[in-house]
Amino acid sequence: MSGPSTTSGRVRARSNDDGVPAHLLCSVCLDTPCGRVEQCSNGHILCAEAGDGSCVSTMRAHARGQGTVPSCPECRVRLSDNLQRCLSAEQSIAALPAACRHCAEASTRGEVSGHEAECPRAPARCAAGPDGCPWEGLLGEREAHEAACMRGRAATRDTTERVAPLRLSEQADEFQISINISSVFSCFQI
User: Fold this and answer.
1) pLDDT digit string, tens, across residues 123-164
2) Looking at residues 11-26, what average pLDDT do you find?
């Protein structure tokens, strides 16, 4: 890798600390975009993931507050309201190597979030946490804990006690309906 490149007077390294090439870094935050990526008319990419926290939405909000039109921080070209999505950058970023934050398993950036959501080494809380269970542990151990959790059983018992009378009253209503139907049809001779 050679030295830094200069674009519109800004000095920019050829890659970031993770080894991501400079052409895949957001022109605003100089970090690797996650999710949706958009580009200016000259191809400089910007973080555009849905929500108010993306670089694109932040730039637009700032420009509105200043009474100006947002421009690309690299080339200063005016940013239209309809930026073009940059699928090639999204796919290139998704193919970059990544590792799980919990177990360090090697993966790609596109697949790592799915793995992290199910990783047995991910931190987890008991489902009965709202009912007062203080247990915190690993996702891989949560099922065994919840099977033995007294607060979880109490919550299940409370739910069963509230639902059981409903079921009995529903059965009584159904029985009453069937009696009424029988009495209506009993006056007809078949």
Assistant:
1) 999 999 998 999 999 999 999 999 999 887 655 555 445 444
2) 73
Q: Give me 7's structure tokens.
A: 């674009």
What tokens were used for 21? 């090439």
Q: How far apart are CA 63 and CA 77, in angstroms?
A: 14
Cβ contacts of 91-94, under 8 Å, gap ≥ 24: 92/24, 93/20, 93/24, 93/32, 93/33, 93/34, 93/37
51 exposure class (CB count in 10 Å sphere: 0-12, 13-18, 19+)? exposed
Tokens for 3?
């030295």
Q: What is the rounded CA–CA span in Å between residue 89 and residue 166?
A: 56
Length of the chain: 190
Write down the pLDDT at residue 9.
44
List % helix, strand, coil for the chain (3-state, nearest 5): 45, 15, 40
Q: Angle between the 87-94 and 109-118 helix axes, to the nearest 10 degrees?
A: 50
User: CA 51, 52, 58: angle at the middle one, nearest 5?
Assistant: 135
Q: CB of 79 within 8 A of CB of 72?
A: yes
Q: What is the pLDDT of residues 65-116, one digit of tens each?
A: 999 999 999 999 998 877 899 999 999 999 999 999 999 999 999 999 999 9
